Amino acid sequence: MENQEQLYQQDIRNFIDIVDRFKYLQDNDYTTAYKLHKDALAQYDRWSQILFEVRRSELSRKKDPPWKDRAEEVMRVLNNIYVSSRMVYGKGKDDYETKR
């Protein structure tokens, strides 16, 4: 089976970028949190498509459980980043609305 990681190099770079940005997210950086939650959701959708492609390819080829497991783990991480970033953004939105 062709190395799946090589097929998705840009997706892997995008995932690493999101994780790196999340590592430095401050709880009062609402603008970055908003962008991060949007990016994480978009990448979650992309990795969902990747997982679908891997599962579909397994119908006619040898299975690749490690790659499938990794794609599922990436999706879990992206979902956690999405939720956490959305919470930071939501806090900022609430803070802004109460200061009116």
Layout of SSEs?
Elements lengths: L3 H4 L1 H15 L6 H28 L7 H34 L2
Helix pairs in contact: 2-3, 2-4, 3-4
Outline the structure in words.
The structure is a single chain. By secondary structure, the chain is an all-alpha fold. The chain has one domain. It has four helices and no strands. Helix 2 crosses helix 4 and helix 3 (30-57) runs antiparallel to helix 4. The longest helix is centred in the last third of the chain and has 34 residues, at 65-98. It is elongated. The mean pLDDT is 86.
Q: Which structural class do the helices and strands define? A: mainly alpha
Series of H and E elements = HHHH
Total of DSSP H or I helical runs spanning 4+ residues? 4
- Principal-axes geometry comes out as elongated
Assign a percent range to the helix content.
over 70%
Largest sheet: none
Which strand-content bin applies to the residues?
under 5%
Number of strands: 0
Unreliable stretches (pLDDT < 50, length at least 5) are: none
Q: Tell me the number of structural domains.
A: 1
Oligomer: single chain
N- and C-termini, Cα separation: 59 Å
* Radius of gyration, CA atoms, in whole angstroms: 17 Å
Output mean pLDDT: 86
